[in-house]
Write a structure and sequence with these properties.
five-stranded parallel β-sheet
Length: about 775
C-alpha cells in the first residue's frame, strides 16, 4: 500500500517505535532502545564498541514545523550530541524537509551527521515504509488512518461514523494501544478461524474486534457485519471458496443482559457457522459479548453448553492492561486531548497518573470519558485530578453529571432512544420523542435537529446508510448511543421514574418500546427491571395490539453493505411471543387474555390470516397461548380450531425443513382439541410429508456442501417428528453434499500466521517505565 503518511496520528512513543523498526532495516544492525523518559539525547543506539557508536534521535513534529525543529535542535539537542560525541548521529523527523532545509540541519549537526542521508524527513521515512510492507502492517495506526483504508472501514460499518466524521475516527485511532488481548484473539483466529471476544463492560472488547476487522480488511477480506441473527450471516456468506470474508457479530447475545436473544435453533446454526469457518481457509468469524451474558446463554442453550470446550473464547481482561499499557493508554488520551500543559504538568508532578492507572475501577472507557472535552473544559489542575478520582470511585458519575446538565428536551430524547433498542432511524426517533413530550405535557419550542445536536457526540452518534424499500428516500440516518454503557445508564435512570416510565409505554410509537426493560440489568434504585415495569403491565398490554403490525426501519445487510430497510415485516409472531413471555414474567396472566381478545376478537380467523409471510420460529408457543385463551373463554371456537386455522393446508407456508417442523409442532396443539383429531392428524401430516419431499427435490443451485449437510441433519430430525420414511431423501442430500465437498476442495496453502505481524517490541524494547511515559509526554509537549 503506497501512502504518504504524515505520522500525526502516532503518539510520541508510537513514532519512536516506528523509527526503531525502520532504522533497523535501513542501517542493517540491531538497535538498542531505552526506557521512555528524558533520554539524554538518545532514543536508539548501535554501540558495538565505545568508539563506534551510532545514535538515532526521533523527533515527531507537525509536517510544516521545520522552524521549531531547527530551534529545538539548536537550543536543546546540540549540546547533548556534543557531550555524547557519537561516531554517527542520525535524525528521524516527521517534518517534511526540502533539500535546502536538510543542508541547513546538516550544517548544524556536523561532524556527527556524516551526510544529508543521515537526516530523514517524512519523505524518506515514507519510502522505507513503502519498501517494507511488514513494518507498515505491524504499525496499524499508520494504515488504519489512511484515506483508502478508512473508506473501506466506513463502508463496512466497522465504526459507527459517517464519511463526514473521518477526522474524529482518525483522532480515536491515535489513542488506541494494542495489548495482549488483541494478539491472543488474532492467534485464536489463525488457529480456529473463529473467536468470541468476551469481557466486562468497558474493557475494550469492541475496540479489539474493530482492530481485528481493520486488519482483515487490509489483508483483502470483505466484512459481513451481522446486525440481526446468525441466518443473516449465512445469507451473506459467499459460496466461493476463494472469497475472503470475515463475519462480525457484535454483542451477539445482547448489549446489556441476556433475555433469550438467540432465536430457536439459532444456537445450533451459530455452531454450524463456526464449524464452516474452521474448515474454510478464507473465512473468519468474530463475535463479542459480555462474559456473564455468555455464561447465562450457555445455561439456557444446551447446544452451546455441550460445545463450550470448542467455543474459542478470547477474554479481554484487565490483566491485559499491564501498568505500561495503562500508562500508554492514558498518555495517548492526554496527548490528543485539549488538556493544557499546566494541567498535564500537575498530573506528572504529583504522580496522579499512578492513582489513575492503579485504581481498581480503571477501564479504557472510563479513561476515554475522563479525557473528554466535557470533563476537561475549564478545570484547574487540581480540579481535573479531583474529578478523575471521583469518577473512578463512582463510575456512574461518568454519565450522571453530564446527563443531569442536559435540557429536558435532550433527556427525553435519550429516554426515547433507550427504549428503542439504543439505535433508531432518525424519523422514527423524532416521532417517539414528540409523542413522549406530548404524553408528559411538555411543550418544546425547539426543533428536533437542535435537540439532537445537543447530545450528538457526547451521548449519541449518527450515521447515514443507503436505503432500500422506499422510492422517495435513497438513504436513511441511524442514531445510536456512543456506547452500550450510556444506554445502560439511561435505562436505569428511566426505570427509576414511574411517571416517566408509564409515559414511555403509553406514548410508544414502536413495539420495541413496550419491552425494552427486559434488557436492563437494574434501575438506579437497584430494584429489578421486571418489578419496575410490572406495575404498568396494563399499559403495555393495552398498547401492544396497536403496535403489533407497525413496520420499523432497521439495518440489514444488502449487497455487502449495511442498509436501512424501510418495509421489512414478518415479526408479528416473534413480537407476540416476547409479549406473552414478558407478561408471564410479571405474573400478569390475565393480561394475556386481554391481548388475545384485542388482537383476534372472538375467533381464530385473524390468527390464521397472520401466518403467511411470518417467521415461524415461535408459531407453536404463540398458538398454544392463544388456544388456551379460547379453550377457557370460547370452547366452541377452540374445538373447531383445526377447521378455522385450516391446519391441513399449512404446508403452503413452509419454505424449508425447519418451517415444516414448526408448523407440525403448532398444528398438534390445534389437533389436540379437535373432535376428530385422528383425521386431522393424518391429513396434516401427509400434507407436510409431501411438502418435505418437494423441498428435497428442489435444492437451490447456490447451496454449498455445508448447506446440504445441515439440511440432511434437519431432515433426520423431521423424520422423527413426523414418524415418516424419508431415508431416500436424506441419502440424496448426503450424496449431493459429498459431491460438492469434493468439488470445493481448496489447494491454497494456508497463509503464514498473522499474529506475529503485530509484535510490539521489535528491538528488545525494555521500556517499562511508567514514570518515563509521562515525563516524555511533558517534554514533547513543551516543544
Amino acid at each position: 500500500m503506497t501512502v504518504g503518511y504524515d505520522f500525526q496520528n502516532l503518539s510520541f512513543d508510537d513514532f519512536e517505535r516506528l523509527c526503531a523498526d525502520l532504522m533497523q532495516v535501513r542501517i542493517g544492525v540491531p538497535l538498542e532502545s531505552f526506557k521512555v523518559g528524558r533520554d539524554g539525547g538518545i532514543d536508539l543506539r548501535y554501540a558495538p564498541s565505545r568508539d563506534r557508536t551510532t545514535i538515532i534521535q526521533c523527533k515527531r513534529y507537525a509536517p510544516d514545523a521545520f522552524a521549531r525543529l531547527y530551534r529545538d535542535l539548536e537550543s536543546k539537542e546540540l549540546a547533548k550530541v556534543r557531550v555524547l560525541a557519537p561516531q554517527r548521529y542520525v535524525l528521524c523527523t516527521s517534518c517534511k524537509l526540502s533539500p535546502p532545509q536538510k543542508e541547513k540541519l546538516l550544517s548544524l549537526l556536523v561532524p556527527h551527521c556524516l551526510s544529508s542521508g543521515d537526516i530523514l524527513g517524512a519523505g524518506e521515512l515514507n519510502s522505507i515504509v513503502a519498501a517494507n510492507p511488514d513494518i507498515e502492517r505491524r504499525h496499524f495506526k499508520l494504515w488504519l488512518s489512511s484515506v483508502a483504508v478508512l473508506e473501506r472501514v466506513l463502508n463496512a460499518g466497522i465504526f459507527s461514523y459517517s464519511e463526514h466524521e473521518v477526522e474524529m475516527l482518525q483522532r480515536e485511532i491515535s489513542r488506541y494501544v494494542v495489548h495482549d488481548g488483541f494478539d491472543r484473539a488474532l492467534r485464536t483466529l489463525d488457529d480456529t478461524h473463529h473467536c468470541i471476544i468476551v469481557g466486562i463492560p468497558g474493557v475494550g472488547k469492541t475496540t479489539a474486534a474493530r482492530l481485528l476487522l481493520a486488519h482483515y480488511l487490509r489483508e483483502g477480506y470483505d466484512v459481513v457485519s451481522v446486525t440481526r441473527d446468525v441466518d443473516e450471516a449465512w445469507r451473506m456468506l459467499s459460496r466461493s471458496a476463494d472469497a475472503k470474508q470475515v463475519i462480525y457479530y457484535d454483542d451477539f447475545l445482547g448489549q446489556v443482559t441476556f433475555s433469550q436473544k438467540l432465536e430457536k435453533n439459532e444456537d445450533r446454526r451459530l455452531l454450524e457457522l463456526m464449524t464452516h469457518c474452521k474448515n474454510s481457509k478464507n473465512k473468519r468469524f468474530i463475535l463479542t459479548t459480555r462474559d456473564y451474558i455468555l455464561d447465562q446463554a450457555m445455561g439456557a442453550h444446551e447446544p452451546l453448553d455441550r460445545a463450550k470446550a470448542n467455543l474459542k473464547r478470547s477474554t479481554v481482561t484487565l490483566d491485559d492492561y499491564s501498568p505500561i499499557v495503562r500508562a500508554r493508554l492514558l498518555a495517548n488520551h492526554l496527548q490528543f486531548s485539549s488538556l493544557g500543559l499546566n494541567v498535564l504538568q500537575a498530573v506528572v508532578d504529583t504522580r496522579a497518573y499512578t492513582t489513575i492507572i492503579e485504581h481498581p475501577n480503571f477501564l479504557p472507557r472510563v479513561v476515554e470519558q475522563l479525557c473528554s472535552e466535557s470533563e476537561i473544559e475549564g478545570k484547574t489542575p487540581q480540579q481535573f485530578i479531583d474529578n478523575a478520582l471521583a469518577v473512578l470511585n463512582d463510575p456512574s458519575r461518568v454519565w450522571l453529571r453530564p446527563f443531569r446538565q442536559l435540557t429536558v428536551d435532550a433527556r427525553n430524547l435519550a429516554y426515547t432512544l433507550a427504549s428503542l433498542d439504543g439505535i433508531c432511524e432518525y424519523e422514527r426517533l423524532e416521532a417517539g420523542w414528540r409523542s413522549l413530550n406530548l404524553q408528559l405535557g411538555h411543550r418544546s419550542d425547539r426543533s428536533f435537529v437542535d435537540v439532537l445536536r445537543e447530545v450528538e457526540g457526547s451521548f449519541t452518534q449518527s450515521q447515514k446508510y443507503p436505503g432500500f424499500g422506499r422510492t422517495s428516500r435513497l438513504e436513511g440516518r441511524m442514531v445510536r448511543f456512543v456506547n452500550p454503557s450510556v444506554r445502560e445508564f439511561v435505562m436505569a435512570d428511566l426505570l427509576n421514574q414511574d411517571e416517566l416510565l408509564v409515559a414511555v409505554f403509553e406514548s410508544a410509537v414502536s413495539f420495541t418500546q413496550l419491552l425494552f426493560w427486559r434488557e436492563a440489568r437494574y434501575s438506579l434504585s437497584s430494584k429489578s427491571s421486571t418489578s419496575a415495569a410490572a406495575k404498568f403491565a396494563g399499559a403495555i398490554s393495552a398498547k401492544a395490539p396497536q403496535l403489533l403490525s407497525v413496520v420499523e426501519p432497521r439495518l440489514e445487510m444488502y449487497l455487502g453493505r449495511q442498509t436501512v430497510f424501510w418495509n421489512l415485516d414478518g415479526r408479528k409472531l416473534k413480537r407476540l411471543y416476547a409479549l406473552f413471555e414478558a407478561l408471564s414474567s410479571m405474573s400478569h396472566p390475565s393480561q394475556l387474555r386481554s391481548v388475545c381478545t384485542a388482537i383476534f376478537g372472538n375467533n381464530l380467523r385473524e390468527f390464521a390470516e397472520m401466518i403467511p409471510g411470518q417467521e415461524l420460529t415461535w408459531l407453536p408457543e404463540v398458538l398454544k397461548v392463544v388456544l388456551d385463551h379460547y379453550r377457557s373463554d370460547e370452547p366452541e371456537t377452540a374445538a373447531t380450531a383445526c377447521q378455522i386455522l385450516e391446519v391441513d393446508k399449512w404446508d403452503r407456508y413452509a419454505r424449508n425443513f425447519l418451517d415444516v417442523r414448526y408448523l407440525w409442532d403448532a398444528a398438534r396443539w390445534a389437533i389436540e382439541l379437535a373432535p376428530d383429531a385422528g383425521d386431522w392428524h393424518d391429513r396434516t401430516r401427509d400434507a407436510l410429508i409431501a411438502k418435505t419431499k418437494e423441498l428435497c427435490s428442489d435444492v437451490p443451485d447456490d447451496w454449498s456442501a455445508d448447506d446440504l449437510v445441515d439440511a440432511s441433519a434437519e431432515l433426520e430430525l423431521l423424520m422423527d417428528d413426523l414418524e415418516a420414511q424419508l431415508e431416500q431423501e436424506v441419502e440424496k442430500l448426503r450424496t449431493l453434499a459429498g459431491e460438492l465437498q469434493h468439488a470445493e476442495e481448496e489447494h491454497d496453502e494456508y497463509q503464514s500466521s498473522l499474529s506475529t505481524r503485530y509484535g510490539r517490541d521489535r528491538v528488545g524494547d525494555p521500556r517499562s517505565d511508567v514514570d518515563g511515559v509521562f515525563r516524555t509526554l511533558v517534554e514533547q509537549l513543551e516543544r
